[in-house]
Design brief:
Largest sheet: 4 strands, antiparallel
Strand order of the largest sheet: 3-8-9-7
Low-confidence stretches: 1-27, 305-309
Strand content: 15-25%
Bound molecules: zinc ion
Order of helices and strands: EEHEEEEEEEEHHHHEEHH
Radius of gyration: 21 Å
Number of helices: 7
Mean pLDDT: 88
Helix content: 10-25%
């Protein structure tokens, strides 16, 4: 590793690259509410009405449910594609497929006639009667992306039943209540899918910055004004990303997504010009602007502190 006080080298991560276990920090993020919302809209526009010929799990762990049989959707038209939290829903009437991409997962379109039996990183495939198909892939070795086949209302069954309300649907009063009901650090609170659904590491960083609140603020101590600022920040950040994603033909890779502080450590804050700082954890980084968010205080970098011990 380099000089711990110096700027860290950030390297863009692409889904085809193996995950680095060493010191390099990769720009590697879960698709969050805006990316999934725009992708659901895109797939809905292109596939709604198409009849499912076959659903094929390509790994032993792809399908997370034993009943009902996924084949129950075969012969049915795709009614619509939607999103809930960080999940995509493919509704075939009889049965809904709930898909979670995790970090390296993608739900991609395959051209007719270009559907290898064992596609690289393939997890599951939906083949339509018109010859097209959708392929769920997952890069890396974690194999955590998956599909749930659900009969009836998916909202009342796993994996969606434990989710909090979608982050872009709550008002300041609800947020204040949730802040006080779930006392923790604000950054963790924003990422907790049982409290609010749809936000991940990137938007947690961006929302804290936009709301001018410390990511380490204790949610139990936040006020009605803070709750209003959080709601405004969620809407601003989600809308900014949604606009960006809707202008694309496919889901963005994490390095392309807009933002002010996330993965911008060492750069100037676009609001005040101060240097963006980061506190690094094993699997994620909290990025913030001291002037905008912590009254100028620079918080200890976990990794550096450990290194100095
Ligand atoms: Zn700033």
């Amino acid at each position: 590793m380099g000089d711990p006080a110096g700027p860290k080298v950030l390297k863009p991560w692409t889904p085809d690259e193996p995950r680095d276990r060493g010191r390099t920090v990769y720009l590697w993020d879960v698709p969050e509410l805006p990316e999934l919302e725009a992708h659901a809209e895109r797939l809905d526009q292109r596939y709604a009405g198409a009849s499912l010929q076959r659903f094929t799990p390509l790994t032993f762990t792809a399908l997370k449910t034993a009943t009902p049989p996924a084949a129950a959707a075969e012969g049915h038209a795709l009614v619509f594609v939607s999103r809930r939290g960080k999940y995509l829903l493919l509704d075939f009437g009889e049965l809904t497929f709930v898909v979670h991409l995790m970090q390296g997962g993608r739900l991609r379109e395959e051209a007719a006639g270009k559907q290898p039996a064992k596609p690289k990183n393939g997890i599951a495939r939906w083949t339509f009667a018109d010859g097209r198909s959708l392929l769920l892939t997952e890069a890396g070795t974690e194999r955590r992306a998956g599909v749930w086949a659900i009969a009836g209302d998916p909202e009342t069954q796993p994996p969606l039943d434990g989710l909090g309300p979608d982050a872009d649907t709550v008002d300041p009063a609800q947020v204040l209540k949730l802040l006080h009901e779930h006392p923790m650090r604000l950054h963790g609170w924003l990422r907790d899918q049982h409290v609010l659904a749809g936000l991940g590491r990137r938007l947690a960083n961006e929302v804290c910055h936009r709301a001018r609140l410390s990511p380490f603020a204790s949610t139990a101590k936040l006020t009605a004004d803070d709750a209003a600022a959080i709601v405004e920040a969620i809407h601003a950040c989600v809308n900014e990303s949604l606009a960006y994603e809707r202008g694309r033909d496919d889901m963005s890779s994490s390095a392309d997504r807009p933002g002010s502080v996330h993965h911008r450590e060492g750069e100037a804050c676009p609001v005040c010009g101060d240097t963006v700082r980061a506190v690094e954890y094993r699997s994620y980084t909290v990025a913030y602007c001291p002037t905008c968010q912590t009254s100028g205080k620079v918080l200890a970098d976990n990794t550096t502190s450990k290194f100095l011990k």
